[in-house]
């Protein structure tokens, strides 16, 4: 296995939406750029397991929900049915098209695509292990490694079995009833999906409101809409344990000082994601993290000024449009640093705040 070192102006770790945006912008600005990606299938979270596949499922659910309401509009839609296999097949076909397009962008971009997994040797050197071993020297870096499922230890959950936001995307079975653990954006998407297709849905949320990072009035509107559609919503709970039962699976939790249960055919785990930082050897580069997430300035810098971060690895919100903006801002600020191949300096850009958290959740319809 050979190993050599090459110099770059800007080295991007991660080929998702934020990383690709940063690499493209840096190349457009005239920087010599390398993008490191080790995943077998390229495209990033949004395309492969996030925004795009979930929206294909939701589109099917929305169409079915409209058909179920046909009589309200003086129409008749008889003998309608859900075919989970065909919903998932449509999703796979569309996502393959998106992923192929992104792969072509990565392979034919104005930057070098380096296939493998990277880790820092020092603040300016990244070791990449793939088919060959390489050392990339960078004047600046962008960490855009995305996120993966964060599992909370709930007694009995692993033994009982469950779906998560990845496996739901491949599940062709539509259960008669579902208990959703969590009420963040991803959890509510799948609650909507199953409810629209006819499943009885119960949401068990640890926090005092759904969408905990959103404004209280948004959370109230979402809660009211879910409850109006027959979703049972428990807020401010403490998960105790999970076990099997005659109906399928049972979640035991504490709510308003009382122990309660929710039984369903299936449990869907939606208790959040965590940045993919393991294996980067951040200590070797002197990069600090807090609670498993990189701490960044509004200019997308970590505590090491020439190392930037974007997307789920940086936060504060796991939204693809923010990741894209962060990647571009990071590239522009790296370009503004003085030095060979860089701009002449000037004011650095920063990401503007896109949403705040204000007010209390207020009253919420719940059981």
User: How would you sum up the global shape?
Assistant: globular
Q: Mean pLDDT, rounded to whole units?
A: 90
| CATH fold name of the largest domain | FAD/NAD(P)-binding domain
State the low-pLDDT regions, or none.
339-347, 352-367
Secondary structure category: alpha/beta
Gap between N and C termini: 61 Å
- Provide the helix percentage: 25-40%
Q: Give me the CATH architecture of the largest domain, please.
A: 3-Layer(bba) Sandwich
Helix-strand topology string = EHEHHHEEEEEHEEHEHEEEEEEHEEEH
Rg from alpha-carbon coordinates = 23 Å
CATH superfamily of the largest domain: FAD/NAD(P)-binding domain
Supply the number of helical segments. 9
CATH class of the largest domain: Alpha Beta
Strand residue content = 25-35%
In a few lines, what is going on in this structure?
With 367 residues, the chain is α/β, with parallel strands linked by helices. The chain is built from 9 helices and 19 strands. The chain has helices at 17-28, 45-49, 51-68, 84-107, 157-160, 185-196, 216-228, 282-285, 320-336; strands at 3-13, 33-37, 112-115, 117-122, 125-129, 133-143, 147-149, 163-164, 177-181, 200-204, 232-234, 237-245, 248-255, 258-264, 266-269, 273-275, 289-290, 293-294, 307-309.
General description of the model:
By secondary structure, the chain is an alpha/beta fold. The chain has 2 domains: 3-149 and 274-336, FAD/NAD(P)-binding domain (3-Layer(bba) Sandwich), CATH 3.50.50.60; 157-271, FAD/NAD(P)-binding domain. The chain is built from 9 helices and 19 strands. It has helices spanning 17-28, 45-49, 51-68, 84-107, 157-160, 185-196, 216-228, 282-285, 320-336, and strands at residues 3-13, 33-37, 112-115, 117-122, 125-129, 133-143, 147-149, 163-164, 177-181, 200-204, 232-234, 237-245, 248-255, 258-264, 266-269, 273-275, 289-290, 293-294, 307-309. The strands form 5 sheets. Strands 1, 2, 3, 4, 5, 6 and 19 form a 7-stranded mixed beta sheet that branches. A 5-stranded parallel beta sheet has the order 8-15-9-10-11, covered by helices on one side. The protein has a 3-stranded antiparallel beta sheet with strand order 12-13-14. Helix 1 (17-28) runs parallel beside helix 9 and helix 3 packs parallel to helix 6. The longest helix has 24 residues, at 84-107. The radius of gyration is 23 Å and the shape is globular. The model is unreliable at 339-347 and 352-367 (pLDDT under 50).
């Amino acid at each position: 296995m050979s190993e050599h070192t090459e110099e770059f102006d800007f080295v991007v770790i991660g080929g998702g939406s934020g990383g690709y945006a940063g690499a493209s912008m840096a190349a457009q600005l005239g920087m010599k750029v390398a993008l490191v990606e080790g995943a077998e299938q390229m495209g990033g979270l949004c395309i492969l397991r996030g925004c795009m596949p979930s929206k294909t499922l939701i589109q099917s659910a929305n169409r079915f929900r409209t058909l179920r309401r046909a009589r309200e509009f003086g129409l008749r839609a008889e003998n309608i049915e859900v075919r989970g296999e065909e919903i998932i097949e449509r999703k796979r076909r569309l996502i393959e098209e998106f992923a192929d397009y992104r792969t072509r962008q990565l392979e034919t971009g104005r930057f070098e695509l380096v296939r493998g997994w990277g880790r820092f040797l020092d603040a300016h050197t990244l070791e990449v292990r793939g088919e060959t071993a390489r050392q990339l020297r960078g004047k600046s870096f962008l960490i855009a490694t995305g996120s993966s499922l964060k599992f909370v230890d709930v007694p009995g959950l692993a033994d009982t079995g469950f779906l998560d936001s990845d496996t739901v995307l491949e599940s062709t079975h539509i259960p008669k009833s579902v208990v959703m653990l969590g009420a963040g954006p991803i959890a509510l998407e799948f609650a909507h999906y199953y409810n629209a297709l006819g499943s009885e849905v119960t949401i068990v949320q640890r926090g005092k409101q759904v969408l905990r990072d959103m404004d209280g009035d948004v959370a109230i509107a979402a809660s009211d809409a879910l409850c109006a559609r027959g979703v049972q919503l428990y807020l401010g709970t403490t998960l105790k344990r999970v076990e099997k039962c005659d109906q399928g699976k049972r979640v035991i939790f504490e709510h308003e000082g009382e122990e309660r249960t929710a039984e369903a055919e299936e449990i869907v785990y939606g208790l959040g994601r965590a940045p993919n930082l393991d294996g980067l050897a951040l200590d070797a580069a002197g990069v600090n993290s807090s609670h498993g997430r990189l701490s960044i300035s509004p200019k997308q810098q970590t505590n090491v000024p020439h190392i930037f971060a974007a997307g789920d690895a940086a936060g504060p919100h796991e939204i693809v449009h923010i990741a894209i903006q962060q990647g571009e801002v990071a590239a522009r600020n790296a370009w503004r640093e003085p030095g060979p191949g860089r701009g002449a300096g000037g004011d650095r850009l920063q990401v503007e705040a896109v949403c705040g958290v204000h007010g209390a959740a207020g009253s919420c319809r719940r059981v």
